[in-house]
């Protein structure tokens, strides 16, 4: 629109005339007037030729001007392109440098990361090994401590067991002593009662020796004297003299029997003889000394009374075994029945004192097994084992 406005007015009228002629030619042709159309074409061509001739220099000038502007524009575009290319190349160079720097930085970072990773792995591995070593040391120390604790606990455990055992033993002993104390209380009462009964039986002519201890207890004496009253033995053989000798002599004085008492100790035998004389019983009782000497019985050797002291003894109705003392040796009274059995009368009595002791219990058991004619009787006070003996020839 700007270019049309710049055309002079006269040139515009000419262009308008050309347009009108062209339009008239087209209308004549359409209306079927060829001659008119041809004439109009001729006029149109002539007009165009005139316009061209008139407009040629200006158009040429404008073309040259436009061409010059186009060249300038092309130069500017080329310059801009070169500048753009230069800028692009510069940018590429900068980007290349940045890329190199970035690659270098990345490589450095990768190397640094790899180094850090190696250091971390090495540190972790060292820590793991160190931790494992510390764990091993701790476990070893714990094991040693545990062993020491166990070693320390063993004596304590053993001590605890010993303390328990001692405590149990003390409890057992305490119970035993409590039971023994109760038994002793009853025994004191029982022994006192037996002693009173003994003195009621006789009217001693001199002070009586004490009972108990090494001598027969009052209950043992009471049971023995009761048997003497019932059986009235003609001959009573006593192994081990002492207090019992005096009481037996008083009982036999009433029944008309005879007492032979054997003792291995000369001094003790002399003391017993003196007491018999004081009581006026030496006509009833005889005390013989028979020193201890070896005696073989059932393949075993024992220290027992010399058998020569029994050579003239026959038809013994009651045998009282109250010696030798236990201090002589184990089962020291075991040979008695083996040595005296041939001298026992038919239906005789055998009394073994102190059967509360283990040795005497063993002796009583062995006698019952070894002598077919021996029968154990009931004892009132369980101080003696009482047997009835029937020699084999008498039973036939």
From TrEMBL:
<dbReference type="Pfam" id="PF13578">
    <property type="entry name" value="Methyltransf_24"/>
</dbReference>
<feature type="transmembrane region" description="Helical">
    <location>
        <begin position="12"/>
        <end position="31"/>
    </location>
</feature>
<feature type="transmembrane region" description="Helical">
    <location>
        <begin position="37"/>
        <end position="56"/>
    </location>
</feature>
<keyword id="KW-0175">Coiled coil</keyword>
<protein>
    <submittedName>
        <fullName>Uncharacterized protein</fullName>
    </submittedName>
</protein>
<keyword id="KW-0812">Transmembrane</keyword>
<dbReference type="InterPro" id="IPR029063">
    <property type="entry name" value="SAM-dependent_MTases_sf"/>
</dbReference>
<keyword id="KW-0472">Membrane</keyword>
<feature type="coiled-coil region">
    <location>
        <begin position="63"/>
        <end position="126"/>
    </location>
</feature>
<keyword id="KW-1133">Transmembrane helix</keyword>
């Amino acid at each position: 629109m700007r270019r049309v406005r710049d055309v002079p007015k006269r040139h515009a009228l000419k262009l308008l005339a050309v347009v009108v002629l062209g339009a008239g030619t087209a209308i004549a042709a359409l209306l079927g007037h060829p001659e008119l159309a041809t004439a109009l074409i001729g006029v149109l061509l002539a007009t165009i030729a005139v316009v061209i001739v008139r407009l040629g220099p200006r158009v040429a000038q404008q073309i040259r001007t436009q061409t010059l502007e186009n060249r300038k524009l092309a130069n500017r575009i080329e310059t801009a392109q070169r500048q753009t290319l230069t800028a692009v190349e510069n940018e590429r160079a900068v980007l290349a440098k940045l890329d190199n720097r970035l690659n270098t930085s990345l490589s450095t970072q990768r190397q640094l990361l790899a180094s850090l990773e190696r250091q971390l792995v090495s540190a972790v591995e060292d820590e793991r090994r160190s931790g494992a070593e510390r764990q091993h040391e701790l476990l070893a120390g714990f094991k040693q401590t545990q062993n020491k604790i166990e070693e320390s606990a063993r004596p304590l455990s053993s001590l605890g067991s010993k303390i328990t055992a001692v405590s149990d033993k003390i409890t057992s002993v305490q119970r035993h002593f409590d039971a023994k104390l109760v038994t002793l209380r009853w025994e004191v009462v029982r022994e006192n009662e037996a002693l009173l009964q003994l003195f009621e039986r006789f009217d001693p002519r001199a002070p009586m020796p004490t009972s108990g201890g090494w001598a027969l207890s009052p209950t043992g004496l009471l049971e023995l004297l009761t048997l003497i009253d019932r059986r009235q033995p003609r001959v009573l053989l006593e192994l081990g003299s002492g207090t019992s000798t005096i009481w037996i002599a008083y009982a036999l004085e009433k029944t008309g029997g005879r007492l032979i008492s054997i003792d291995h100790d000369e001094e003790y035998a002399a003391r017993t003889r003196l007491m018999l004389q004081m009581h006026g019983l030496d006509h009833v009782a005889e005390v013989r000394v028979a020193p201890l000497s070896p005696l073989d019985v059932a393949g075993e050797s024992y220290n027992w009374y010399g058998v020569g002291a029994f050579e003239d003894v026959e038809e013994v109705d009651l045998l009282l075994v109250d010696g030798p003392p236990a201090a002589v040796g184990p089962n020291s009274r075991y040979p008695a029945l083996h040595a005296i059995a041939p001298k026992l009368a038919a239906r005789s009595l055998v009394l073994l004192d102190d059967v509360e002791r283990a040795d005497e219990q063993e002796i009583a058991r062995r006698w019952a097994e070894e002598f077919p004619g021996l029968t154990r009787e009931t004892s009132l006070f369980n101080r003696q084992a009482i047997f009835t003996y029937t020699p084999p020839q008498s039973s036939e």
